[in-house]
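The following record pairs a protein chain with its ligand, NDP.
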Amino acid sequence: MNPSEAFSLRGETALITGGGTGIGLAMARAMHAAGARVVLVGRREAELAAAVRLLGVGASHMVHDITHLDGAAALVEKVTREAGPVSCLVNNAGIHLKKPAVDTTPEEFQKVLNTHIVGAHALTRAVVPGMIERRHGSILFTGSMASLFGIPLVIAYTAAKSAMVGMVKGYATEFSQYGVRVNCIAPGWIETEMSRKALEGDPARKAKVLGRTPAASLGQPEDIGWAAVYLASPAAKFVTGVTLPVDGGASIGF
Ligand code: NDP
């Protein structure tokens, strides 16, 4: 296989949750540039439509709230009808919640888990039977540094993102024998709306982030985009069950 084939996503259809903004949009751009059809999913039509205009031919969107669990199968059917069978699912949609652990109510905790974990599971179980039938599929999750170590003031988010690492391993043990690989990208601190909100007005936290990141900067969304292309591509055909930090060294920094 030559390099342009090894890293090509031609013929693939990628469903990307949270694909209208930030890291999800960067993954959509990179996967689209690598040849995939991309379908962006989120709750805000305007953001999604703007992203699709940016990407052009081969991109489309569907408005869907992933916490509406009963809608997962219908979404996958609609995507299949309009863009072809989903061969890559990117479970990227997420919400953030920054507050002390004791102030985090069980309801707030549950909302974060519902988005990152239960919503992602509902979609995963909706796409996997088709992938198994076709003996071809790649599922990606967007994890976090909170998947790998403790971070204060984000208890529900940490629970969700560390649960993802286990889910990816569990799914990989069930699906990989059928040609369906499951992996997670753990972005370090990446410049997006979400990280701006988490770091704005908290210079001490920002200094701590940069102080423990050997690359000494925040990452760019496209850094995650190209990692997604790699993990979804034939180049990674023997890679499954892993969580890949893309973090400027934050997870090994001191
Ligand atoms: P954004 O806020 O830009 O992205 C979150 C996306 O998720 C939005 O497009 C949002 O769209 C979508 N979303 C949220 N809830 C739902 C829902 N219930 N149903 C469908 N879509 C939903 O931030 P990022 O790009 O930074 O975040 C993307 C992912 O990356 C998240 O999982 C986040 O935890 C993770 N991450 C981010 C890091 C960073 O430094 N920025 C670091 C590590 C991980 P809409 O509101 O229209 O539904």
